């Protein structure tokens, strides 16, 4: 990915974009795509009624991860308070979506893949949040 490369070329970079935040951005965009795809795959399953909560949590997680990636990518000025709150929200969304997908992982491979992506993103956001504590 080009995340690190593009952020380092920013002419008006403010705030800190360490390795943890860059990994978080990449994992957030990946998770957003995977959650969207899993929700769509759930809609195609014959037992779609049993997957309603999974679909909802996947779509919520996808939206939150995409927003997190977008906000964290902006480096003009800084908005650390909002960034920290979004990281906390993203951690919660990934945990909830990952937990629900794990419940269906044995029957649906797309849910197993999604649960893994959610866990990676949750961990990356936790590391970025921890890293932000050392910025000041």
TrEMBL record:
Gene3D superfamilies: 1.20.1270.360
Source organism, top-level taxon: Bacteria
The protein's name in its UniProt record: Four-helix bundle copper-binding protein
